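User: ok so my PI wants both of these folded by tonight, can you help

Assistant: No problem, let's get them done. Here's the first:
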Amino acid sequence: MNDLSTDELLAMAEDLDARTRDLPARLAAVTGRACGRHGIEVTVTMSGMLTALDLGEACRHLTAPELTSELESLIHQATDTALAAGVDLVSPIAGPELTAELQRLTAPPDRTPSTSNETQQNTVDSRTAEPEEDFSAQTFALRD
């Protein structure tokens, strides 16, 4: 058994609290971005929710099925990028074993490779993240 003093345990708890205090806000700010060969740019959250879309001139040159396919591919790429950035954020706290499992769980599935010249970019912008409401100190009374 590990014989840590009370002071050592308190220091470890304070350190963990300091490292994780703003983690939910930082994770909420993570986005992934992908740019396609037709000038389409998408930005998504880690859950794949589209937060920005720039079609450029693509909608003038592509058919509806082509545009749909391109958007789907770019959203997948951007989501994969955002998930990898999220794992990168939690890895210093999670440790190597949990990080490896998170990487395995969030690894992109095998998809048909694209022949387009696409780029990806990780973005973490804490200025755009809205603070989460903290209800931990509130009590709610239910009435009939």
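One down. Here's the second:
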Amino acid sequence: MHPDVALTHLQEAAVLWSVGSGTPAEVIEAACDCLLAGVDEPTLRILAGISAVPSGESDELRRWLGDALAELSLIFFPEGSRAGADEAVRIMARRLLDRTITARALTSWAYGFITWDGAPLAAGLIDLEYAYEIVEAIVHDGQPYPSDAAARVDADVVAEARRLLGGTAEDH
């Protein structure tokens, strides 16, 4: 793995952990990947060496993550921070546009991990999660929604992801 790819993976793992969507083990694994890619800093070694014992890994991660990211010129987002939530939304939007997750997975993730209170940036995605629920559960005027209704919501989610990343509907 190229060092830049490993660092991006670590940054994303740390951000997703900060909003409760990622696990300490994923951050630790990303730190190990950085070492394997040739990135070597003292605190990164400590981070990579955290025991994967679930009861203690979050405490150790909290202790070392900020310093490790700072050594690597990466951004540390404290757990529950609004900036971290905004960045997590952008990470997941990029994953949709890179086709590593589905549109429905993105809206479900935003609804479950971000919420309107956590990051207003995610409001459009959360609204679209409700749109999926309507398409799946409600019959309109006694008739089921057309079969392409979910595909239309998918297209709206892709457009929202592009908007979140500063692009237009024609990008990507």
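The mean pLDDT is 88. The beta strands are 139-140, 143-144. Good luck tonight!
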